[in-house]
Design brief:
This protein is 1% helix and 40% strand. With 545 residues, it is an all-beta fold. The protein has a domain of 142 residues: Methylamine Dehydrogenase, Chain H (7 Propeller), CATH 2.130.10.10. The chain is globular, with a radius of gyration of 23 Å.
Length: 545
């Protein structure tokens, strides 16, 4: 199948024509109310509760039934929380209404071998979860169900997730000579609380570097090979047919994350909101856009930029990251050598490339806002979150570097004009002298205009929304204190995004992570998927198969 893809591939690395104006659309996304859930010594959910007047507050909902380090996950639509207790393996299900209020909490009885044992990731735009069952098999699970339904068991123990759509999965399994075989699986509609996955269909074999589903699962794009040998292939999902192929690579996720579609940069997408365009890097390192219906590409920014009125001349480099925001703006990071890095935004309607941040800023792109446009589609202001020397800050037009917004941040994709994050810092000291993390939910607001220039001088309270809890026997308030003992982890629910299994903070400085699990991404056939069910009885341990 890959031979067919190469036969259709373009022989010219870079498009000859610059991009003219085009409509990239806007995602139709409803923001789910629950913000995050953390399983520490005492599990809890942070909820964003708003009244009819639009006044919001962050509320803390305890999860006393969970022991420290339990697995927790919010579904992407935010209507369910599924938790697997660390101590006894019991499954709990919490249901939320559209306003973020909990409707019910119940202990869920699940099958002794087919029940969920490890939470992996959520299907996009829905309430279904991909899990590992108690036999270690990849499976699909509906919150509150008795069983998890196995997914493509015929592919064997070394099946890995490559990408997740609304009702489809892309799976990779090791192949000869270090290659991987890529399969598509249709999980089917929910019928009577369960799904009926189809048999996997192989669509490609090769050095698969990234896989991304388009809006509505209409298409799936696959990058094969690296550098000058990279090829992008577009498949029709319904018919599992190759419909386009060209030289280049999808780079909406970072190289150090193996450009996994499961871990695209917060707020960034390879496909445009209307699904008609694809942002990619050419084999020479230039930034381009593919018009999928026309089977043609246009150039956004070449790798040897001579500069414009707003953009200075740069040395020859490489576009390391590129993608669309929820309202159709293209954001990209351009690197020169090993140290110099710059962030750009491209408005496809205005046909203008705008550098963000200072020219000598060495900024790397960390997150982009859900929208920078007004309801009429006009751009209000272009800005993003950059990181430099481990510190995050807002960066905008006119070479402006904004307010520093912290170091230990876990960004969340939210569809509004700001960027949301979970922030922690060792800034609280108890009476015993032991430090604790002070946790807050931060909303980094967009910069304001002042005298025809962007201004980042708004007071901190305008940029940060903190959670405060009443101290026992004290009228004063302070930030939520999260003890450093125990595992700290996070899962976020957001319609149009992903739900991730809680990560482990013990290996780094970030206290809360949205890591879907490296064991689900490894291509090493000797590295089997991690499976350490917390069940005390030997009879419950999975067989080696």
């Amino acid at each position: 199948m890959l031979g067919i893809a190469w036969g259709l591939g373009a022989c010219v690395a870079d498009p000859m024509l610059p991009c003219g104006a085009f409509e990239s659309g806007e995602r139709d996304v409803d923001v789910a109310r629950p913000i995050a859930v953390a399983a520490t010594k005492e599990g809890f959910v942070l909820r964003n509760l708003c009244d009819d007047a639009g006044n919001c507050r962050v509320d803390r909902l305890p999860l006393p039934e969970l022991t420290a380090g339990s697995q927790v996950m919010l579904t992407p639509a935010g209507h369910f929380l599924v938790a697997i207790d660390q101590e006894d393996g019991g499954v709990w299900t919490h249901e939320f209404d559209d306003g973020g209020l909990r409707k019910q909490r119940s202990a869920t009885y699940v099958h002794e071998t087919d029940g969920p044992a490890k939470l992996v990731i959520g299907l996009r735009d829905g309430d279904s979860l991909v899990v590992r069952d108690r036999q270690g098999r990849l499976a699909i699970y509906e919150p509150g169900a008795y069983k998890a339904i196995p997914i493509a068991p015929e592919l064997g123990d070394y099946t890995r997730l490559a990408a997740v759509g609304e009702r489809h999965l892309a799976l990779k399994v090791p192949h000869a000579e270090g290659k991987q075989a890529l399969y598509l699986v249709d999980l089917g509609e929910v019928n009577g609380g369960v799904r009926n996955p189809t048999r996997p269909v192989r669509i490609a074999t090769g050095d698969i570097t990234s896989v991304v589903f388009g809006p509505g699962d209409a298409n799936v794009v696959v990058s094969e090979g690296r550098g000058t040998e990279a090829t992008v292939m577009l498949f029709d999902v319904e018919h599992t047919e190759l419909v386009d192929s060209f030289a280049g690579e999808v780079v909406s996720a970072r190289e150090e994350n193996r450009r996994r579609a499961l871990e695209e940069l917060p707020g960034l997408h390879a496909f445009s909101p209307n699904g008609e365009q694809l942002a990619y890097r050419t084999t020479s390192g230039s930034l381009a856009v593919r018009h999928l219906e026309l089977h043609g590409s246009c150039m956004v920014r070449n790798a040897n930029r001579l500069g414009t009125d707003r953009e200075p001349t740069r040395d020859v480099g490489d576009h390391a990251v590129a993608g669309f925001s929820d309202d159709g703006i293209v954001f990209a990071e351009y690197t020169v050598g090993r140290s110099d890095s710059y962030v750009y935004a491209f408005d496809p309607r205005g046909e203008e490339i705008v550098p963000l941040g200072a020219e000598d800023g060495d900024w790397h792109l960390s997150a982009v806002p859900g929208r920078v446009t007004a309801p009429d589609g006009e751009v209000e202001q272009l800005w993003a979150i950059g990181v430099r020397d481990g510190t995050h800050a807002s960066i905008g037009e006119d070479g402006v570097d904004g307010e520093t917004v912290g170091r230990e941040l876990t960004f969340m994709a939210r569809f509004d004009d700001a960027v949301w994050a979970i922030d922690t810092a060792d800034q609280v000291v108890t009476e015993g002298g032991r430090s604790q993390r002070a946790l807050s939910v931060r909303r980094v607001a967009p910069p304001r205009w002042a005298g025809d220039r962007l201004s980042f001088d708004q007071p901190p309270d305008a940029q940060v929304v903190e959670f405060f809890e009443q101290a026992a026997g004290d009228d004063s308030q302070g930030p939520l204190r999260v003890p450093l003992i125990g595992r700290l982890c996070l899962s976020t629910g957001r319609d149009g995004s992903w739900a991730f299994r809680c990560g482990d903070s013990t290996s780094g400085h970030t206290a809360l992570t949205t890591n879907s699990g490296s064991q689900e991404q490894s291509d090493d056939p000797d590295n089997r998927p991690e499976f350490e069910p917390p069940f005390p009885d030997d009879d419950d341990e999975p067989s080696e198969g």
